[in-house]
Amino acid sequence: MTESYHVVGIGNAIVDVLAHASDSFLTEQNLPKGAMTLIDAHQAQRLYAQMGPAIECSGGSAANTMAGIASLKGRAAYIGKVHDDVLGRVFRHDLSAIGVHYRTPALRRGPTTARCLILVTPDAQRTMQTYLGACIELGPEDIDEDLIVSSQVTYLEGYLYDPPRAKEAFKKAAKLAHGAGRKVALSLSDSFCVNRHRAEFLEFAQTYADILFANESEIESLFQTDNFDLALQKARGLCSVVVLTRSAKGSVVVAGDEMHVIDAEKVVKVEDTTGAGDLFAAGFLWALTQNRSLADSARAGGICAAEVISHIGARPSCDLAKLMAEKLG
């Protein structure tokens, strides 16, 4: 089949609700700072009532990555489950309006569209409380075979590993992609997520992934160490390409005996780290599908991450294609 898309992302379709909060508020609410915690509908309602003024926008890790690729003028597609409710229709409109192909059928009954309550503290750290809602209904039947085999890369969001049926969806998509000679990328998403699925992530990375994305805490959690250099060495050979982000320390890309250490892009002021990893993946995958080198792909990822952390919200606020042309050429 002729290639139609650069990247198809599979993940939790979530509407983000962002609000500023103090560290004392996190303590009062017993929220683990900087982590993503799963909550039920009742907990979501209770916390929302306690939050300050908020901004609502479509989010979800893989969806943010696809939005970034679309802003770079790449061809992106998305698979994720929403309910046919107000938030679900907003999510679908937002993603489609920026040029991402999104046709996953919505639920007519059952759980409502997922939401993530994001509390941004003065140090720009984000603490996320996520109600998965309709996301848990995504299963193998939602994997569009034509979409997978016509995409250069299938990008899988580690957060989606929590709902049981999504694991089968991941495996089905990976097998389809490899059967068509395509690549599979996996994001570990969050260190707490790694703690929940460590053995399965290791097995999946070794068996199905060609590209692995992780930040410093995630890769250390995967190998149960607090030494980044040790985790880096253990990550060698886990899959063809391992991409490790280190916030202000930049990124490291390992591919066999090849290693690239890339400095972080300068940011005047960090406003909100929400979406930094998502947009790094967007820049990296976009550049890789444009036949750029691994080093240039990491630089592209850093440029996109720097843009998104300079403002509130997890999606680009400018034309990333123009920004990339200016910075990377």
Short description:
The protein is an alpha/beta fold and 329 residues long. 39% of the residues lie in helices and 22% in strands.
Sequence of strands across the biggest β-sheet: 6-5-1-9-10-11-12-13-14
CATH homology-level superfamily: Ribokinase
Helix content: 25-40%
* Count of all domains: 1
Strand-pairing-aware structural class: alpha/beta
- What is the helix tally? 12
How do the helices and strands line up, and which of them pair or pack?
Elements: E1 5-10, E2 14-20, H1 23-28, E3 36-38, H2 41-50, E4 55-59, H3 61-71, E5 76-79, H4 86-97, E6 101-102, E7 114-120, E8 126-131, H5 145-149, E9 151-157, H6 164-179, E10 183-187, H7 191-207, E11 211-215, H8 216-222, H9 228-235, E12 241-245, E13 251-255, E14 258-262, H10 276-289, H11 294-308, H12 320-327
Parallel strand pairs: 1-5, 1-9, 2-7, 3-8, 5-6, 9-10, 10-11, 11-12
Antiparallel strand pairs: 2-4, 7-8, 12-13, 13-14
